[in-house]
Specification:
The chain has a four-stranded antiparallel beta sheet with strand order 2-3-1-4, sandwiched between helices. A four-stranded antiparallel beta sheet has the order 7-8-6-9, sandwiched between helices. It has a two-stranded parallel ribbon with strand order 5-10. With 752 residues, the chain is α+β, with helices and mostly antiparallel strands. The protein contains 27 helices and ten strands. Helix 9 runs antiparallel to helix 10, helix 22 (553-579) packs antiparallel against helix 26 and helix 24 packs parallel to helix 26 (667-699). The chain is elongated. A hairpin with a 4-residue loop joins strand 7 and strand 8 (471-477). 63% of the residues lie in helices and 7% in strands. The longest helix is centred in the N-terminal third of the chain and has 35 residues, at 165-199.
Length: 752
């Protein structure tokens, strides 16, 4: 492993020389990192998640030391019994007793005292308040729900349905965790099957999967550690598993495939591993850096869930890159050609690693023969797919909109909204004042109640809670189901007229409106303000990284444009399916509507990073051939054909993993899975196989142009081709290399 150049090659060389240290060091890291989970993961709270006016409300309560306990209700209904019947009252009494028996409940409200009885008299709401807030209460409310269900079971004629803040959090968490477990069981065999087809050998197929799983486990531990600085949430867990499995397998695949290719070309085991480290290892490092830089842009949003997802993605990618360039070379050095053990007879004789696919050869010939036509057709196709994005609508989905309509929690919300208009969604007005019991504040509260009911968008019962700290909380039911039009209209009435006309006249008061609807509106507003800084950050850093990696203005600019086309097309397909409903049933989606507001920016950031995997890998092989003396078109053809197999396998794995997430129950996660799967599929086919080679063929030698005034940029462009491999340190001579049919540039061309 002599003459290593570049950090990836140096690390790979060290790992190959110190195999046991690398392998056991990796295992020790995974174990120690996984122990981070024992410390507990810090979940973001309302203060962390708060932005805008709703965030100000959370801070007012937090500064005053006032907890916002979770509010829950039990809907009891009967088509035959009325609420004033003895049997119905017996059911209500039993449910109230079951709730009161829990030491997690602070207070219970009887419908016969609050008047929470439906107009037809066949349904009531038993309200209760948990001692803890939504996040903490969700962990303990299970015993309350079980007690209520058991109590209601004794009354066959009365139906009990459960709803509330902690119930919603528990429903979402339980559904997501079940989905994640199922996704892992589906994604791992899928990836293994694709790798078996790609390598035709069990050992070679298992290595990337094992490495991806251990890397993901280690990343989860790092996320637990980092959550003490950057609070995490359930979205972060989803993103970590999704990204960790996808890039973990892909990075190992790139490395392993290059090592096998060099061995098939006749190189010694030492030389093959060194070349793989210096080429594919370098491509993995550059791709990983690109993803990390892109995901760092999420911290600029100032939104807790984006910070959590950014931290999760960065942890997954960093650990996957580290494993690919450290423990993988050590394992390959240990195994040698035994990595081909466990050949699968049913797959037939595996083609040699450097054998061209006839399909890719024909395709590359056509594209390079007619580059202008190929570029035009591919661009029109991508713009056509992107067209629906022009009418994309976004909204922050509530739990009831995100979960399947058949979920008991969503059914409960629907029935409550039907029987008690406005009780499925409430707004909270937080008033900070010097004296919560003053006559001026009391008059403002009375005026608030009158104007709220008169608006026709806000309803009874309006609950007022005065705190000794000078803070007043007002809970008011509102129209709609959280993030829909009626709810937003009701919120606007609150913020623009009812609150200013009542509490605005009281001197020395500070008011803030919060609640599910307010949080959604404020989240979207903050997100819109973040778009330009995040896009600029990602584009500039990605451009600079490509510029220093390939020392070419054209390649850097081309990468930006192609990635934007890919993301735009993914947006268009997402809009067409989930908003317009075209093919929605094929995804198992339960309803068409706006795209989750956090998704477009998240997709842009993560896709800009992930798409660089294929771009760096393909262009690196093209540059290798060019640096060896091939003319540009021959170098393009060589790069495409030599990477076609591995990119096809890598893309199938990513698309497969993402598609598994597209089958999950939560609608926003389903949207994320479809968006990522479509983008990667387009990126690996239309972009890398057609548009990239066509554009590079049209640019010719301009692909490699770097102005002299940019010569000061750091040079990360080193690549090491197989043709330059020196004799290994062991003294063994390399076998002859299979010749590649590429056209050679003249000395004059090579100096241009």
């Amino acid at each position: 492993m002599a003459a290593n150049h570049g950090i990836a090659a140096k690390i790979g060389g060290w790992s190959a020389r110190h195999r046991k240290a690398a392998v056991f060091g990796w295992l020790l890291f995974v174990v120690i990192a996984s122990m981070g989970g024992a410390l507990g993961t810090v979940q973001s709270d309302d203060v962390d998640n708060g932005v805008g006016e709703s965030g100000r409300a959370a801070r007012i309560l937090a500064d005053a030391g006032i907890k916002a306990p979770a509010q829950e209700v039990v809907l009891l209904s009967s088509p035959d019994l009325s609420a004033d019947s003895a049997q119905f009252k017996s059911a209500v009494a039993d449910v109230e007793s079951a709730v009161k028996s829990s030491d997690q409940v602070a207070a219970v409200r009887s419908p016969y005292e609050t008047g929470a009885i439906s107009k037809d008299g066949h349904a009531v709401l038993v309200g209760y308040t948990m001692k803890e807030g939504r996040q903490e209460a969700a962990k303990t409310i299970g015993e309350v729900l079980d007690s209520v269900t058991a109590a209601a079971a004794g009354h066959k004629d009365v139906k009990a349905e459960l709803y509330g803040e902690a119930t919603a959090q528990k429903s979402l968490t339980d559904t997501t965790n079940e989905d994640l477990a199922g996704a892992e069981y589906a994604a791992v065999p899928l990836a293994l099957g694709i790798l078996l087809v790609a390598f035709g050998a069990l050992v070679a197929s298992v290595l990337p999967v094992v490495l991806a799983l251990t890397a993901t486990a280690g990343a989860y531990g790092l996320l637990a550690f980092s959550s003490h600085l950057i609070p995490s949430d359930i979205n972060a867990n989803v993103v970590l598993m999704l990204v960790g499995l996808a890039v973990g397998v892909d990075y190992s695949l790139f490395y392993l495939r290059r090592e096998r290719e060099e061995r098939a070309a006749g190189r010694s085991a030492d030389d093959a591993l060194r070349i793989a480290a210096a080429t594919s290892g370098r491509a993995v490092v550059v791709s990983g850096i690109t993803v990390v830089l892109a995901m760092s842009g999420m911290f600029l949003t100032g939104i807790a869930t984006f910070k959590a997802m950014g931290a999760a993605s960065i942890a997954a990618v960093v650990v996957a890159v580290a494993g690919s360039v450290t423990v993988l070379p050590a394992l390959l050095s240990m195994l040698g050609d035994r990595v081909e053990k466990g050949r699968v007879p049913l797959l037939g004789r595996r083609r040699s690693a450097n054998e061209d696919s006839r399909f890719w050869r024909v395709l590359s010939d056509k594209v390079l023969r007619f580059p202008l036509a190929a570029a035009a057709i591919a661009t029109v196709a991508l713009l056509g797919l992107a067209a629906p994005v022009l009418h994309m609508e976004t909204a922050m989905p509530s739990v009831t909109q995100d979960l399947d309509p058949d979920t008991p929690f969503v059914q409960a919300a629907s029935h409550i909204d039907k029987e008690f208009t406005g009780n499925a969604t409430t707004a909270k007005i937080v008033v900070a004042t010097a004296d919560a019991d003053s006559g001026e504040v009391t008059r403002a509260i009375d005026e608030f109640k009158t104007k709220a009911i008169a608006s026709g968008k806000l309803f009874d019962p309006i609950e007022v809670t005065r705190h000794r700290q000078g803070v007043v909380e007002i809970e008011v039911p509102m129209a709609g189901r959280g993030a829909d039009g009626p709810s937003v209209a009701a919120l606007n009435v609150l913020r623009d007229s009812v609150v200013p006309q009542t509490f605005g006249a009281v001197k020395g008061t500070e008011t803030a409106v919060t609640g599910v609807t307010a949080q959604s509106v404020d989240f979207n507003s903050q997100l819109k303000r973040s778009v330009v800084p995040v896009l600029a950050f990602v584009l500039v850093l990605a451009f600079l990284l490509m510029l220093t990696t390939f020392r070419s203005l054209a390649i850097a600019a081309t990468a930006m444009v192609l990635n934007l086309l890919s993301v735009g097309a993914a947006y268009g397909v997402l809009t067409l399916v989930f908003q317009d409903g075209v093919g929605l049933s094929l995804t198992g989606g339960h309803s068409s509507g706006p795209i989750a507001s956090w998704l477009p920016l998240f997709l842009f950031v993560i896709l800009f990073g992930l798409s660089m995997d294929y771009h760096v890998f393909v262009v690196s092989r093209i540059r290798e051939a060019y640096d060896r003396g091939a003319d540009t078109r021959s170098a393009i053809a060589h790069g495409l054909r030599s990477t076609a197999g591995v990119i096809t396998a890598a893309a199938l794995i990513m698309v497969g993993v993402f598609a598994v997430f597209a089958t999950l129950s939560v609608q926003s996660i389903k949207q994320m899975g479809v968006g990522l799967a479509v983008a990667v599929l387009l990126d690996a086919t239309i972009i890398r196989a057609v548009l990239l080679p066509a554009v590079m063929a049209l640019l010719g030698n301009a692909n490699w142009y770097l102005p002299r005034w940019l010569s000061w940029l750091p040079d990360l462009s080193h690549s090491e081709s197989g043709d330059e491999a020196p004799a290994p340190a062991s003294g063994k001579q390399s076998a002859p290399v299979a010749a590649q049919p590429v056209a050679i540039r003249s000395p004059k061309e090579m100096t241009q």
